[in-house]
Amino acid sequence: MLSTDQIYQLQETLEAAGKRREAAAIALAPKHKGGEWEEFHAAVKAELVAERALAAAQNQAYAVPVELPVLWDTGAPLPHLLQNDYQAFLIFFVRDADPSWDGSSVNIRRPDSPAAFQLAVVEFKGCVSTMMGSPNDEVLHGHPLYGKGLEGYRPMRIENSAWIAELQRINSVHDGYAPERWRRLSHYFFGFHDVTFECVAESVSVDLHESSLPEVLAKVCERLLR
User: Fold this and answer.
1) Would you say which domain of life the source belongs to (predicted)?
2) CB 96 within 8 A of CB 108
3) How high is the pLDDT of residue 45?
4) 10 to each of 33, 63, 217, how far by Cα in Å?
């Protein structure tokens, strides 16, 4: 347990990080001298680190990045959710990595297209519960975890999850309730352009496919039916 002085120091660190991020954002407006974007990204990262440190010290829920080999565009990755009573699969288009793209064209993806794209199949094993829908990225700053390390467009894990605690309380009335099982669960958060996906599960893994979305969805359905 941290002392009051230590908590105050963390609060001061977060306040200073916020001011640095604001100054870095202002510096992006005039004619650039070089290094402005690098400083802005570094300032944002420092603020996120400070947010997580303070929330952890106060035993509050906070978000940390999950190291998965997949990112998605800020546009429309078209996430699809398929699940049964213990498995969940999240399928979406991954970020384009064309080094020759100059920003002058847009690659339109249709979910029913037979063309092959790179798609992520994220499997959540030992799935207990899922949510998919609001908020979108335009109102992510209204989410209760915003300001506590939350980032969009990348996989996140929620530490000190209130959702897991709530589910555990509900299930604690069962005759076969086993507290150790709930300690194995993690709360995952995926923020997309139009929707947010959240899941409580034992583990997560990713497979990448170069295929059409209908083909990948059919393969995932086969896995669910085994």
Assistant:
1) Bacteria
2) no
3) 95
4) 32, 17, 46
How far apart are the C-alpha atoms of 14 and 28, rounded to whole Å? 21
Q: Is residue 97 part of a domain?
A: yes
- The token duo for 79 is 């996430």
Nearest to 94 by CA among 111, 78, 113: 78
Name residue 124's beta-bridge partners: 88, 204
Spatial distance between the Cα atoms of 39 and 20, rounded to a whole number of angstroms: 9
Is residue 12 domain-shared with residue 122, that is, in the same domain? no
Q: What's the domain count of the chain?
A: 2
Please indicate, yes or no, if residue 74 is contained in any of the structural domains. Answer: no
Output b/e per residue, 94-124; b: 16+ Cβ within 10 A.
Answer: beeeeeeeeeeeeeebeeeeeeebebbbbbb
- d(Cα 171, Cα 182) in Å, to the nearest integer? 10
Which range has the worst mean pLDDT, 70-79, 142-151, 204-213?
70-79
Residue pointed to by tokens 């847009």: 106
3-state secondary structure of 110: coil
Examine residue 153 and state whether it is found in any structural domain, yes or no. Answer: yes
Question: Model-level pTM?
Answer: 0.89
In a domain, 176, yes or no: yes
